[in-house]
Write a structure and sequence with these properties.
With 292 residues, the protein is mostly helical. Helices cover 79% and strands 5% of the residues. It has a two-stranded antiparallel ribbon. It is found in: Cell membrane.
Amino acid sequence: MPPTVIAILASVAIAGGFGALVGILVGGRRTQRTTDTSPTGGQTVTSRPVSPGVTLGTTMRDIAPKGYIGMLDRQVVLAGRPPAWTVDRILMAKPVLAIVALLVSWWWISGDPVLPRFALGAFVVTLSFFVPDLLIYSRALERQEKIQNALADTLDQMTIAVEAGLGFESAMAKAATNGKGPLAEEFIRTLQDMSIGRARKDAYESFSERTSSPDLRRFTRSIIQADAYGLAIADVLRIQAAEMRLRRRQRAEEKAMKVPVKVLFPLVFCILPVLFIVLLTPAVLGIIKAFS
């Protein structure tokens, strides 16, 4: 096949693949009409939104292992359930990216079919297949880190509000209204759960399950125990805020102590060889010229 035709086919495949990926992730919704039968015998026609390609997403969900689906759903929860990153869309994006990478690798390998290109092409295809997993994992990790970093300051605000006379839920609502970020969003969701009649303990436990931060889990357990035994919330908040600040400072010191170890590898393998070349090359050339 001529190289021009291969290039055209590869360009069309890339454009189509990325177009399909964009349609999967941010595409609109269509409505599906369903008929429900009421207990009185009547029928009600309703419409519910259906994402494009929902059948493919359901098929991929049926094929994938249940443990992997659970892990993926857990990462989506930790990422805050972004609208464009549902489990079905992630499962649909994985084969699309892999097919696009396979076509591009095939076009690149056909120009010079040697073993290194085959190996690199296989690596690119494998990496493209797992790119959605890496993206959702990175987003979840970033969100949980923001929650953990904002927890100490938020508890300080809640402590001041409780000591000023507000209740715990009112202080939480005040911190959620004045704050920004994922922690404020989780506070708002917890308050919404309690406003629709959910038990406080269940709402706090769900709040704890939606995060992987050990500090936040410890805080929710303390609040549940204080609520169960009738302890003063202000004292609990004051103690928890002090512990959160201490742990945040310890984490910062730990990261600072890890910096020399992380810098050692690029220093030895990247900076020192170049420095030796710059410094020793004139001397070596002078020695060679003197003894030649």
